[in-house]
């Protein structure tokens, strides 16, 4: 136990007095302050636009017309038998027009995620890339192990010191965030505060993972130069992997299903319909598939039945294809810490289920609204719990490998 504490104390002292760490830590704090100031300035601007839009509703000559137009879209969609999801989205849009939601104080977290996605990872790499190689190069590792200090005390002390340092970094960032919010007279509600805490926890796990990876690389690398090059290569690879996931999903999912040739199968072409009294046809496309609209046709006609069945079969094939493509992309993205961080940040910032958020504008006020009910932070994270689990598993695996390899490292 004594050896473990000695190693941890030494590493903490090196971290907090090292010029590289102090410089990068200062950069994180400055970016944190800049991100908060800019984010809250944008929030206040959005809030001002929101209040202006609300005040002008009673005098806006187009306000009632916009509501009437949206209601007509809903009525027409229901008359055509559109999908419930599509109708629900239109109704959510009507509610957003009549009663736009207030801007969320969580808007600034989106900018924060870009900062921590790069600077946080680089800071973690700088902290861990020469933890072991430095000791090898200076000869202190051999000297340290000749004393009554066990190898597990050395590796555990270094790991815990790194953990503690990262906790201090994010603890300071979190406190600075709250302080600036209070200075701007912005007091987050309970759910918003929990989401801010969740964001910093996820950012901390993200940074811990890169620290664990760089520590693992340091354990197996012959020199600090090799360790930093490999660590940076891993970071670049993880960044590229995020884009590879989407590309691989498109390639491995196979070709898109072809639309059936139903227009020439007894149903008049769109060009001929205008000349047919009382008959009309058309189609709409959205994320749920293709919906064709027939009016004035005999619904019991075998050709019309076959027409609708062909559309239903096509949409079913399209849905299966899209799901397969998304599953492949998500699986590959799971291997990328950057992808995991983006997915988790997405559900933390948004209070709606993934895919259930739309955007609209009213005057200068640009806002997001949900097509489903607002979720609590636990409900939001439940949609991405696998990404959180992968973070934890990867961190444990990286440190576990570091421990095993260090116990067998040759110090002669």
Salient structural properties:
412 residues, mainly alpha, two-stranded antiparallel ribbon, two-stranded antiparallel sheet, 15 helices, 4 strands, 71% helix, flat
What does this structure look like?
- The chain has 412 residues and is mainly α.
- The protein has 15 helices and four strands.
- The protein has helices at residues 2-17, 19-56, 63-80, 84-98, 107-128, 133-138, 140-146, 151-183, 190-220, 224-252, 270-273, 302-334, 337-349, 377-382, 385-407; strands spanning 280-286, 289-295, 357-362, 365-370.
- It has a two-stranded antiparallel ribbon with strand order 1-2. Strands 3-4 form a two-stranded antiparallel ribbon.
- A hairpin with a 2-residue loop joins strand 1 and strand 2 (289-295).
- Helix 3 (63-80) packs antiparallel against helix 4 and helix 9 (190-220) crosses helix 10.
- It starts with a helix and ends in a 5-residue tail after the last helix.
- The relative contact order is 0.13.
